[in-house]
Design brief:
219 residues, two-stranded parallel ribbon, 7 helices
Length: 219
């Protein structure tokens, strides 16, 4: 598989990148981000794009790939609704258009628990995430999935771990036992992305329980 990964300078993107580099089914990775990710590997090439909104449809640097794992994202905390929509919906859709049309590509979008597929709920961020998922699924890809991840245990060697993780990392083994449907490992998330791209899945919205199933499939 030839894979595009965005957001490698953030926690989820970096973790998915590290796990994908180890995966035998992944032969080539293009990391697309606003600044270098600081990782070197024979499988890895970087494409530095300061503003995803500046990308043009069918960008030649983004064509010919089997899957895109879109892990770039921001928190809505402290943002205006307009700013959040620009950085969440507009940039994701602009990037998706830059990869194609590509009917051979699987597009995996990392959203999160609580995403509102109806686009009518009370929470603005959830409506925006839901609209992003819905519109990606209407685009001319082979298939598109919204990964509604929860708590994710960082991969070994990760440098870009959210600061608050250090305060509750000791809870992760307990959560795995008491609340297994709330937590995934970074390996599970990456393997699920790779396997769903190769094998498909009956649902386009991927919950934590689906990640556990998909991560065990053979590529």
């Amino acid at each position: 598989m030839k894979v595009i990964i965005t957001g490698a300078t953030g926690m989820i993107g970096e973790g998915v990148l590290l796990e994908s580099l180890k995966h035998p089914q992944v032969s080539q990775i293009l990391s697309v981000s606003r600044k270098p990710c600081g990782i070197e590997h024979p499988k890895l090439t970087e494409y530095i794009v300061p503003d995803f909104l500046a990308l043009q449809p069918n960008d030649p640097r983004l064509t010919g790939y089997d899957a895109c794992f879109f892990c770039a994202g921001v928190s809505s905390v402290g943002m205006s609704e307009e700013q959040y929509e620009r950085l969440t919906y507009d940039t994701t859709i602009a990037f998706a258009r830059a990869t194609g049309p590509n009917p051979q590509m699987t597009f995996v979008y990392v959203s999160g628990g609580g995403t509102d597929s109806s686009e009518k709920g009370r929470m603005h961020w959830a409506r925006v995430k839901g609209k992003t998922e819905n519109d990606l699924m209407r685009m001319p890809f082979k298939q598109a999935f919204g990964f509604r991840i929860g708590v994710v245990q960082p991969a070994s060697g990760q440098q870009r771990v959210l600061s608050y993780y250090k305060y509750f990392s000791w809870l992760i083994p307990i959560l795995k036992v008491l609340l297994p449907r709330t937590i995934s490992t970074m390996s599970q998330v990456a393997n699920a992305m790779i396997n769903v791209s190769q094998n498909g899945y009956p649902e386009n919205v991927i919950q934590i329980s689906d990640i556990a199933i998909l991560s065990k499939q053979n590529g």
